Amino acid sequence: MPQSGPQYSQQKTVETFSPDWLLMAIVLCLFIFVSVVLPAAFSIREPSGGNYYVENACLIEFNLTGKNLLQYNLKLDVSITNPNKKCHVYYQQLQASASYEGEIIASALLPTFRLEHKKTVVIHPAFGGQSAIGLDDLSVNEFMKQRSDGFFRINVEINAKMIESLGLLTTDEFSASIWCGLTIPLLPSNSSASGNGGFTRTECEVKTLI
Q1: Where are the transmembrane segments (predicted)?
Q2: Would the pLDDT of 152 be above 50?
Q3: Distance from C-alpha of 192 to C-alpha of 95, rounded to nearest angstrom
Q4: Are 45 and 60 in contact (CB under 8 A)?
Q5: The domain containing residue 104 runs over which residues?
Q6: Left (φ > 0), alpha (ψ -120 to 50) or beta: where does 139 sit?
Q7: Are 75 and 175 within one domain?
């Protein structure tokens, strides 16, 4: 009669998760969401647009021929500061335009760049050439007065398209219109082009933010 050896039954081991462990995992996820993800989302929810100053303006030429032809040579140094403590700003398009007496006389495209948090860059819009401009007698008289005084009131507007980012979080593309109302001394013809002739640093205003 055959001998029967010891019998072993095969049982499947079923792993179970402790309710305490599940609770700790949920609490940890909530902590990460509240302390990291949520503040990040709020910090980029409303783009700041940055701080803008015209640091230096060099007006080398600003001559009017008749009432309708303006010759100009204007160079600017504009600082842009990202005040956000966490978010980077990607400037995807920048265009500057200069206007006098309500008429745009020149425009210039500027390089795109990335501006890290709490950092400042300086851009250099430059306008040179001649432009047709329609001035009435009153505007011509104002031009001559400003020339006699030695300075001109010129407006510069910078239109920017940008996005803000923090890690994997980004805003949709938004636009800012930066308006700079400048009073710029006209440099004497024999002066150095690198001087500013007494120009006063001027803060620009973010007029629209879309």
Answers
A1: 21-42
A2: yes
A3: 27
A4: no
A5: 51-209
A6: alpha
A7: yes
